[in-house]
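Long-time lurker, first post. I've been practising inverse folding by hand and with some scripts of my own, and I keep getting stuck on stretches where the structure tokens seem ambiguous. Below is the full token string for one chain I'm working on. Before anyone asks, I'm not after the true native sequence, just a reasonable design that respects the backbone. If someone could post their per-position residues I'd love to compare against what I wrote down in my notebook.
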């Protein structure tokens, strides 16, 4: 039950690219681990600025805890293509394996073949809003 599911990335109706199930996924199953480099906040801030300067439109920084962020921008896996949705079919959970914190994406409900994998990014509330493109009935309008 702890193997990653068969997934593919492809064009998304939500935002550019997305991640899609290639097999049925039951509720409460591990879908995929979010993989990248573990870095500190100070390094994440510097990288974010550098990515903008380099013209990298999307950075894939996922906060694990107060001190640690996983950067999947240049060395991540397919999990970085999972889009935000206000009514997601998955959730992210921080688990500890052999004293190392990891982010794992789990299904909230059954997911069908070719269904897009989504989770709520749970961005902190900020003045500068990032528009949400999920278009669900209960869309909040912004990611933050």
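-- Answer (accepted) --
I ran through it position by position. Result:
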């Amino acid at each position: 039950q702890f193997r990653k599911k068969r997934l593919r990335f492809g064009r998304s109706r939500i935002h550019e690219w997305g991640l899609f199930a290639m097999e049925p996924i039951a509720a409460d199953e591990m879908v995929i681990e979010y993989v990248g480099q573990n870095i500190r906040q100070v390094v994440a801030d510097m990288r974010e600025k550098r990515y903008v300067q380099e013209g990298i439109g999307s950075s894939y920084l996922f906060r694990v805890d107060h001190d640690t962020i996983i950067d999947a921008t240049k060395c991540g896996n397919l999990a970085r293509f999972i889009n935000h949705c206000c009514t997601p079919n998955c959730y992210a959970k921080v688990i500890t394996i052999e004293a190392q914190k990891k982010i794992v994406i789990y299904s909230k409900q059954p997911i069908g073949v070719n269904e897009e994998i989504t989770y709520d990014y749970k961005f902190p509330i900020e003045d500068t809003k990032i528009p949400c493109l999920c278009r669900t009935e209960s869309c909040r309008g912004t990611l933050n």
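A couple of notes from the structure itself: The helical segments are 41-53. Strands lie at 7-11, 17-21, 30-34, 37-40, 61-63, 68-71, 83-84, 90-97, 100-107, 116-119. Happy to go over any region you disagree with.
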